[in-house]
Amino acid sequence: MGKHILITGATGGIGLAVARLLAEKGYSLYLHYFQNEQAMEALVKELQPFGGEYMPIKADLRKRDAYKKITESVFSIDGIVHSSGIESYGLFTDLKDSELDDLWNIHVSSLMCITRELLPKLRSKQSGNIVVISSIWGQIGASMEVAYSTVKGAQISFVKALSKELALNGIRVNAIAPGAVDTGMLNRFGLEEKESIKEEIPMGRLCYPHEVAESVLFLLSNASSYITGQVLAVNGGWSV
Questions:
Q1: What is the rounded CA–CA span in Å between residue 67 and residue 84?
Q2: Is 148 known to be catalytic?
Q3: For residue 140, what pLDDT is reported?
Q4: Is the per-residue pLDDT at 188 higher than 90?
Q5: SS3 17
Q6: Of 164 and 184, which is predicted with more confidence?
């Protein structure tokens, strides 16, 4: 039933948008989630009319070995969209060890381990795509988000290095670096703070999740067949 794509963090704001768009375009999906059981049940029900295979996989990627629950559940695979993420906001000196561990395991360790374990399946086809949802802060850094910026920057380094290693295997590796996306991650900000953010963005508005999803679709498609090792900035001109 079409190509099979793994989406981590499929019940998050961006993950949901990616899952909906890819299902609409005929992809079958492995849908990773952790806490939001109801959202996953609703998503699978919503996607059924598109006629693909939609397989939920529950795993807490804050735990070091949880990636195995995902990789052991994946059979045929044509691509991976790494969309799992948590936020961390506050002074760097206030960062707890447990927060740092969670950030690292979700954004870096699980990304690397999932990719490593699934690469033989992609190599066997001599084709495939890996798309990592990083962040504008991984490119330019952010005060009060030092640890988050660090792990997002690590994702970008991973993409650049792995893309070189896999290019001759027909596997492309790219990242998307969204700016301020209108998802639950911005809920910590009040209305005035959100308006202030919009004023900093040349396009004068937040990014919509479906705009990130469209970028994922592009990077998975043959329309981007000569693009690898790149970071696509979807930020309304914020970092220009």
A1: 12
A2: yes
A3: 96
A4: no
A5: helix
A6: 164
pLDDT digits (tens, 9 = 90+) for 70-83: 999 999 999 999 99
What are the C-alpha distances in Å from 104 to residues 27, 33, 142, 182? Answer: 30, 18, 17, 24
Query: Dihedral of CA 231/235/236/240: which sign?
Result: negative
Question: Under a CB-based contact definition with an 8 Å cutoff, are residues 111 and 155 in contact?
Answer: yes
**Encoded tokens for 125:** 């086809």
Under 8 Å between Cβ of 7 and 70: no
- For residues 206-216, b (16+ Cβ closer than 10 Å) or e, as one string? bbebebbbebb
pLDDT of residue 1: 53
| Residue with token string 């079958």 | 28
Q: What is the pLDDT of residue 185?
A: 74
Beta-ladder partners of 28: 4
| Sequence spans of domains, the chain | 4-234
Instruction: State the architecture of 4-234 in CATH terms.
Output: 3-Layer(aba) Sandwich (3.40)
The Cα angle at residue 81 between residues 77 and 82, in degrees rounded to 5: 125
Average of per-residue pLDDT across 13-40:
96
CA 115 – CA 32 distance, rounded (Å): 14
The mean pLDDT of 157-166, rounded to a whole number, is: 98
- Out of 27, 54, 67, 148, the active site residue is 148
